[in-house]
Each structure stands twice: as C-alpha cells, then as structure tokens.
Design a protein that fits this description.
By secondary structure, the chain is mostly helical. The chain has one domain. Helices cover about 80% and strands about 0% of the residues. The chain is built from four helices and no strands. The relative contact order is 0.15.
C-alpha cells in the first residue's frame, strides 16, 4: 500500500508542477498581450488560450491540494464531534468525494468525445476543445485515487486513537 500511495503522491506532484508551469505561461501570455495592446498590436487569441490554461491550472491543482489538505474546510461542526464520529464523517466524505469525482470524470470523457465528434474548435486559433475535458477527466480520476489514499490515512489514524 505504501508504494501505491507513493505513486499517487508522485502523480499529484507532477500534476501540480504542470499546473504551475501552465500558470506561469498564463502570466507571461497576459503580460505580453497587455504590452502588445499598448503598442497597438494585440495578441489575437490570447483570451482563448488563457481560458484553456485556466481550466488546466484549476483542474490539475486539485489532486495535490487534496493530498495536502489545503482546500477550504468547514470545521465548526467537526470540532464538536467525538474523535470516533469525526473519523466516520471523514471516511464518509472521502467515499462521497470519490463517487462524485468518478461521476465528473466520466462526464468529462463523454463531453470530450462529443466535442471531438462535432469537431468544435476555438474561434481565434482554431484549437480543438476536446483535449481539455480529457485532461480534466484524468485529473478527476487522479483525485479519486488521492481521496482513496486519504481514506486509508484517515482509517489508519482512527484505529490508532
């Protein structure tokens, strides 16, 4: 199990690094577009590229954020629970999260297939849309694996208490 969890962690880190690289690219592209607009030569298609990149940045950052538990928590209810009830609640939320993200990942695949079938492309650069939902589906499935690892961690912590 340790190898599996280490592999999931490495994938999470890889997606986080890719997310950071894409974010840096977005910043550079936006700065370039602003500078060129001031010179009267705007970067055509910058908006659509930044939109694509935004989806990648947010989607690819989710698994690592979940691993590190840096997302938003609403703890006021959990703090009032006993350790046993808290562990059960955490286990339930991890399981529900896995179901939710499997569902989202499957629907991203369906959406990507429909975009590929229709041949829909962006207006400026004529970039196909379908790779974005496929990439986000991979990120959702990785998030499911991350939630599974977190479920294992929560379960092990609960048994030690």
């Amino acid at each position: 199990m340790k190898r599996f969890m280490a592999a999931v962690y490495r994938l999470d880190v890889s997606f986080q690094v890719l997310s950071g690289i894409v974010l840096a690219f977005m910043v550079l592209l936006t700065l370039t577009d602003v500078a060129l607009r001031n010179l009267g030569k705007p970067f055509v298609g910058a908006y659509e590229i930044v939109s694509f990149c935004g989806a990648v940045v947010v989607g690819f950052a989710m698994p690592y954020a979940s691993w590190k538990r840096v997302h938003v928590f609403v703890d006021f209810l959990m703090e009032k629970m006993s350790p046993r009830k808290r562990a059960v609640m955490q286990q339930c939320t991890r399981c529900l999260g896995m179901v939710l993200f499997v569902f989202i990942g499957i629907n991203f695949i369906r959406y990507g297939i429909s975009l590929k079938t229709s041949g829909e492309v962006s207006p400026g650069f004529k970039l196909p849309y379908y790779p974005i939902p496929f990439g986000l589906s991979i990120s959702c499935f990785l998030l499911c694996l991350t939630l599974f690892c977190d479920l294992v961690r929560v379960t092990r912590e609960e048994k030690h208490e």
